[in-house]
Give the backbone structure.
Amino acid sequence: MSRNILVTGGAGFIGSCFVVQQVEARNNVLVLDKLTYAGHLVNLEPCLHSSKFSFAPGDIGDAELVARCLKEFRPDAIVNFAAESHVDRSIHSAEDFVRTNVLGTEQLLRTTKDWWQGLEPEAKKKFRFLHISTDEVYGSLDKNSAPFTENSPYAPNSPYSASKASSDFFVRSYFKTYGLPTLISNCSNNYGPRQYPEKLIPLMVLNAVSNKPLPIYGTGLNIRDWIYVEDHCEALDLILSKGRMGESYNIGGECEKSNLEIVYFICEILDEVIPKSDGTSYSRQIKFVADRPGHDFRYAIDSTRVKKELGWTSRHCFPEALRKTVLWYLDNSEWTKQVMDEDYRKWLHQQYQDFDSSKSMEQKD
Ligand code: NAD
Ligand code: TDX
């Protein structure tokens, strides 16, 4: 049976992948998105003309708009991807992170709860609110510590992760206090097409081919657990259909890599598919720059619960999916042109202007 799903933040990187999968599965999807610098309708191109898809521009914190969407669309589920998502931006200023991730999520919960309480018993029982969170709420691991489980204590270190942790607690509180049927997912680092090029992988690909420096924070030895975005969205579908209310589900790629490894992998792919005319490797563009303040050393996720309880497995293997991702950015220059606008150039200047104080790879050697 087809479901009505309200997807907030559905014009961003992960949300748009989820929306495309759900429309392909013949569910009706209403995307509510504020279209911030990170949200682009072009991300939804594959389903823009589908009768299963509709779009409402706006803010999750706009109670009137959300109430209208709920009343008219009557969702069986809400999936909340809407967030400010970049750690480095949260270090420059946390204001938007508090406004959307904390206050916006709480307002969305409140509006949803008010509407949900008035539903018929059957619709009320069927309804689900899935909140998309992150592994960053658990803080940082040492090299040899066991991966995060759902029972790991929250210990956020960046303003971004503090705002996500806060939103998770509000979701939990709405389940405990009002019985709103909520679910939380905590996922590791996603990669794939349509990721805004402020994040490590698309930034490195696009800088490399523009002959710009590849800025590695600190030593480059920090570790992230990488998951292909489609695998993440498939896990979310299972959580939505079969997850236990009030629970959290960790989702990870079982693919721990240091940042330096990731950048070398990207350079190897580029060296093969678009070799530089002077015969040198793109890795010569690597520059070690000042570290991210409060930089978490390592994330790793234990996905046992989502695997055992819900039968999820990731379908993609890293080398192939990374290659596919790199090729996607090379092949989609119209997309990159659209998202790498004036705002993007301003961000690069704000974040990376300080290249002078950096050391190039050759200098380091
Ligand atoms: P993104 O920055 O690409 O997209 C965020 C989307 O939310 C954009 O379309 C933006 O316009 C929209 N948005 C922002 N503020 C809004 C508001 N107030 N009202 C309505 N829409 C708003 O982010 P992403 O990488 O796709 O991440 C999606 C979610 O997944 C976030 O909650 C993030 O914390 C979480 N997450 C991301 C990763 C990752 O690796 N990218 C990993 C784990 C969890
Ligand atoms: O220029 C860079 N140089 C660099 O060394 C950038 C942008 C990043 N890095 C490092 C910092 C991190 O250790 O690469 C790693 C990955 O950085 P990001 O792509 O910014 O991701 P991260 O900070 O790990 O957070 C991501 O995963 C968890 C998402 O942005 C979050 O939304 C998600 O919750």
Q: What stands out?
A: Confidence is low (pLDDT under 50) at residues 356-365. Residues 292 and 349 are 16 Å apart (CA to CA). The domain at 4-196+227-254+297-317 is CATH 3.40.50.720 (Rossmann fold).
